[in-house]
Design brief:
The protein is an alpha+beta fold and about 290 residues long. Helix content is about 55%, strand content about 25%.
């Protein structure tokens, strides 16, 4: 009976030892499995941190493109270099170094906050620049419109000035020319003529400046020559000096003024088409053609 109890005790002891061994084995296996899972989690977390650091380093380059401020670009470059330095430290850190990983995670929060502040700052600057650009565009449009208005007013003023100048010009009307004897009696043919008589009227013009005026009469023969007593008898017209046949001074009051001038014929003149042009104040104020036999 005692042997049986001892055997039973041994069996129980052996069973307990076996159970304990099995339990220890199970616990060991679970611990090994937990360690492997933790290592995998650390490795994944480290990889994610590296990815975020790389992204932030690239974003600094993108931010630099969006601005033209040299000082701000320099600061962004410094932050980029700092981020790259932390990335290198992370790459050199083992996944099992929990303390270093924790430190670099905290550094990443700082990098993220700094990045956010620069993004907000640059967005604000861009909005200001865009506003200034729009205002500048509006001002440019207003300036252009004002310039066009001024140009239009100048054109209108110039046109009005031209109209006033045209309106103020003297006007020679009723121009007539005929050959005559020495006593002024009209002849039908030029053969026995001693002079040309030229009659015309300076029309009434209240816009013309009154006072002494110089009238130039220019007679052109059928062969295209200008009758002139002296080659130096010239006046200024359209920026050049041209010959005149007769010069006469008048006192113009703004009222209608009849004028008669004479050309003494001292050269041989043929029958044909003669042309008379009359000038005053640098303008041609009238002309007419005459067929003289």
């Amino acid at each position: 009976m005692d042997i049986n109890k001892r055997d039973i005790f041994l069996y129980i002891l052996i069973a307990l030892l076996l159970a304990a061994a099995v339990t220890m084995g199970i616990l060991w296996n679970n611990s090994e499995q937990d360690n492997e899972e933790m290592l995998e989690l650390f490795a994944i977390e480290k990889e994610e941190l590296e990815s975020e650091y790389s992204t932030f380093a690239s974003q600094y380059d993108e931010l630099k493109i969006r601005i033209t401020n040299d000082s701000l670009q320099q600061r962004l470059e410094q932050e980029k270099l700092h981020t790259q330095q932390l990335l290198e430290e992370l790459k050199q850190t083992k996944a099992t170094d929990a303390a270093e990983i924790t430190r670099l995670k905290k550094e990443l929060k700082t990098v993220r906050a700094v990045m956010r502040s620069y993004v907000l700052q640059i967005d604000s600057l861009n909005r200001v620049n865009e506003k200034l650009a729009n205002e500048n565009k509006k001002m440019s449009a207003r300036y252009q419109k004002a310039s066009q208005t001024i140009s239009s007013l100048n054109e209108e003023k110039e046109a009005l000035t031209q109209k006033v100048e045209l309106a103020s010009q003297l006007d020679a009307i009723g121009i007539n020319m005929y050959p005559a004897k020495s006593n002024g009696k009209e002849l039908k043919k030029i053969k026995k003529a001693k002079k040309f008589v030229i009659d015309f009227v300076i029309a009434k013009n209240i816009t013309t400046q009154t006072g002494e005026k110089t009238i130039y009469v220019r007679i052109t023969t059928p062969d295209g020559n200008v009758l002139s007593k002296n080659i130096s008898d010239t006046f200024r017209y359209e920026n050049r000096d041209i010959n005149y046949s007769i010069k006469k001074y008048i006192e113009y009051t703004g009222e209608e003024l009849p004028i008669t001038v004479y050309w003494d014929i001292e050269e041989f003149l043929q029958a044909g088409m003669y042309r008379v042009h009359i000038f005053a104040d640098g303008n041609m104020i009238g002309y007419n053609n005459f067929e003289i036999e």
